Amino acid sequence: MIVVGIDPGIANTGFGVVRRRNGRLVALDGGVLRTRAERPPEQRLADLFSQVEELLDRHNPDALALEALYFGQNVRSAFAVGQARGVVLMAAGRRSIPCEDYTPQQVKGAVCGSGRAPKEQVTRMVQSLLVLPEPPAPDHAADALAVAICHANHAPFRSATLRAQAPDARVA
């Protein structure tokens, strides 16, 4: 199973790609998709869409996991993140790739065992779980890898639960 994790943003969208191989998670790719601030929003979103399409074409994932939208103090920022999420969802939808949302607390809990873990602990645990020689950087890439790990660890349980509820249902 290959999972693409996404930490959405209009300026910087983190991505992480993991694969479950022989019961272990392996990092296949990670980084940040960037758009140029001087471009108008519609062009930035089109640029992001193209980059996400390339990413999905390159890795042909079984699932895509996104960090859920968090409404903090900055509503303008939340709208931009929501627009970026929509672009990512559209790219996945065009390829019929199933998508799941995870809150930051769910991701931290899945990776660190505590939904209140600090960012540095999440990065160290991602490094450890994926047996990376160095901590993943930048933060957006580390966060996206954590989202992918969260989904990869939840997907088998979720799939089994849904099969038990509806034996004819297919789940990624």
How much of the sequence lies in strands comes to: 15-25%
What is the typical, i.e. mean, pLDDT? Answer: 91
**Over the alpha carbons, how many angstroms does the gyration radius reach?**
16 Å
CATH C-level class:
Alpha Beta
Write the H/E string, N to C: EEEHEHEHHH
List the helices and strands and how they pair.
Layout: E1 2-7, E2 12-21, E3 24-34, H1 41-59, E4 63-67, H2 75-94, E5 99-102, H3 104-112, H4 119-129, H5 139-165
Parallel strand pairs: 1-4, 4-5
Antiparallel strand pairs: 1-2, 2-3
Helix pairs in contact: 1-2, 3-5, 4-5
Question: What does this molecule look like?
Answer:
The protein is α/β, with parallel strands linked by helices and 172 residues long. Helix content is 50%, strand content 21%. It has a 5-stranded mixed sheet with strand order 3-2-1-4-5. A hairpin with a 4-residue loop joins strand 1 (2-7) and strand 2 (12-21). It starts with a strand and ends in a 7-residue tail after the last helix.
Short structural description:
The protein is globular, with a radius of gyration of 16 Å. The protein has 172 residues and is α/β, with parallel strands linked by helices. α2 links the parallel β4 and β5.
Which properties best describe this structure?
172 residues; alpha/beta; Nucleotidyltransferase, domain 5; five-stranded mixed β-sheet; 5 helices; 5 strands; globular
